């Protein structure tokens, strides 16, 4: 389906929970109001929404959170939706991945993105507050062993991990993964973390004297000592002109843009396919031309939207 700006919307980011086992400082606030089980859509309701979206042209689904692997039934969800679309992917912090990776593969998952900002275990614990780096590494290694298409996502943070490119890139190559750095984004829940630690990708590119290779799927790729590293730049060089995605939260809210204040409640329509498709169509048509972060339009938080 085309939105109001003639962009083809074929990509869904589906949040299955707003809970996470980590508390990364740029994402989770100090105090999180936990959602109850009754607040969340049931697995079968999430499947119903995906089915409805396939009538509107959705071909790719990325399962997100919070941390999606804390949600019971996520393997079953993937098993049910993988026959409906071309690709089902997962974004995870990796710490819970190793024990369930084989089940996810059997369910039809093919692509895994693991978020990891440093290979220093002390710094990792500082960033995540309570994370164990060895668990995340075990998840990545297991995903590689099972043959997943694997990406490692790292959030750029000035004064934190701006020198981490060589070590993370070597680690990615060792695990047959593509490394991508993502510019830090502002969220109300993260307080002034953005103001303290934002650094544009261009500074890292200049710092390591990287040579441009190609642009693909909203990511600019560069060469560093014969290895390929990507940069996603939603702040310094936004790519809204070809954005092809919408988001649905675990509570059934359809959000046309990550930094859009509009949301559409799908819960009243889930039991009627026609009205559900109509509601989803309205959400797609409401997608704004671009985000307005530079004008101070900032979402409250990341963890219950799905990134």
Description:
This protein has 307 residues and is of the alpha/beta class. Helices cover 27% and strands 21% of the residues. It has helices at 43-54, 74-81, 101-107, 121-128, 133-145, 165-174, 193-197, 201-207, 273-285; strands at residues 11-15, 60-64, 87-92, 111-115, 149-156, 177-183, 211-216, 219-224, 227-232, 245-248, 253-255, 264-265. It has a twelve-stranded mixed beta sheet with strand order 7-8-9-6-5-4-3-2-1-10-11-12, with helices on one face. Helix 1 (43-54) packs parallel to helix 2 (74-81), helix 1 (43-54) packs across helix 9 and helix 2 (74-81) runs parallel beside helix 3. The mean pLDDT is 92.
Describe the structure using short key phrases:
about 300 residues, twelve-stranded mixed β-sheet, 9 helices, about 25% helix
Overall body shape: globular
User: How helix-rich are the residues, as a percent range?
Assistant: 25-40%
Question: What is the strand content?
Answer: 15-25%
Largest sheet: 12 strands, mixed
* β-strand number: 12
Unreliable residue stretches: none
Give, in spatial order, the strands making up the sheet with the most strands. 7-8-9-6-5-4-3-2-1-10-11-12
Secondary-structure-based class equals alpha/beta
Query: Cα distance, first to last residue?
Result: 22 Å
Instruction: Let me know the average pLDDT.
Output: 92
Query: What's the helix count?
Result: 9
Rg to the nearest angstrom?
19 Å
**What is the H-and-E element order?**
EHEHEHEHHEHEHHEEEEEEH
